[in-house]
Specification:
Layout lengths: L7 E5 L4 H12 L3 E6 L2 H13 L4 E5 L5 H15 L4 E4 L14 H29 L2 E6 L12 H21 L4 E8 L12 H6 L9 H12 L10 E4 L7
Parallel strand pairs: 1-2, 1-4, 2-3, 4-5, 5-6, 6-7
The chain binds nicotinamide-adenine-dinucleotide.
């Protein structure tokens, strides 16, 4: 029996990296998908790719920092599939710059996407889940929600915010059948790494390699499915051993 048969999942940042790998795994487990992203070009081609493989998927261009566009995500999901069961709240941007050079606008942008956006989409999902009486949220934080690093103060602060937002929402809705957990990846080989020194990131990882998006997707599936039915307010750190050091 498929783990997500007939479930409807909204995936933000759903057309690239960890979100796209999760979309493929969710589809293979029977889920219907609403893929949300700013990247329209990738969105259209990924929707077509999934459909050609027999998946039920719709792409929606939306910015997770816009209240109006976030509301539209759930209107679209309800219009297309009639319900929402799962939110993978995963859209994010990276930001690396020495703190003394960081403008307030740059700080705000990172926190706006990586923390405020997670809040806005989670809140909209929770409003729907309260109507239907159940739901599951998986937020993407980072191992940098747990440990610090030089040169990415805004990102790290935002991701730590996501970890504690996850705890708080998990507790707030624990008795109302809405589970909220977080994925905390280490260095994963996706476009967000950009020009980062991949060799350096590999060497800094005890397993001496970067993680694969597909390895994240398996953890997301665990947290989004009934396999984790007694888990809420928690985080899974999957980082090749980085934070164990
Ligand atoms: N790759 C890593 O090493 C790593 C490590 C820890 C955490 N993460 C987190 O994982 C998540 C997914 O990142 P990824 O590695 O797959 O990178 P990615 O760049 O491949 O995917 C991120 C996606 O989010 C989308 N996005 C960005 N801002 C958005 C917005 N305002 N509204 C809607 N969509 C938006 C981008 O267009 C992109 O498609 C992010 O939250 C990231 O911070 C990644």
């Amino acid at each position: 029996m498929s783990k997500l048969q007939d479930k409807v999942a909204v995936i933000t940042g759903g057309v690239s990296g960890i979100g796209a790998a999760t979309a493929k795994l969710f589809a293979s487990e029977g889920a219907k998908l609403v893929l949300v992203d700013m990247n329209e070009e990738k969105g259209a081609s990924f929707e077509a790719e999934l459909k050609s493989q027999g998946a039920e998927a719709v792409f929606l261009k939306a910015d997770v920092t816009s209240e109006v566009e976030v509301k539209n995500i759930f209107t679209t999901a309800l219009d297309t599939f009639g319900k929402v069961d799962i939110l993978f709240n995963n859209a994010g941007i990276g930001a690396v710059k020495p703190t003394e050079e960081l403008s307030y606008a740059e700080w705000r942008k990172t926190v706006e996407v990586d923390l405020d956006g997670v809040f806005l989409v989670a809140q909209a999902a929770i409003k729907e889940f309260l109507k239907t009486g159940s739901g599951v949220i998986v937020n993407t934080a980072s191992m940098y929600g747990w440990v610090g690093s030089p040169g990415s103060a805004a990102y790290n602060a935002a991701k730590a915010g996501v970890v504690n937002l996850t705890r708080s929402l998990g507790l707030e809705y624990a008795a109302r059948n809405i589970r909220v957990n977080a994925l905390c990846p280490g260095f994963i080989d996706t476009p967000i790494l950009g020009e980062a020194d991949r060799q350096g990131l590999t060497a800094a990882t005890p397993m001496n390699r970067l993680g694969k998006p597909e390895e994240m997707a398996k953890a997301v599936l665990f947290m989004a499915s009934d396999d984790s039915s007694f888990m809420t307010g928690n985080s899974l750190i999957i980082d090749g051993g980085y934070t164990a050091q």
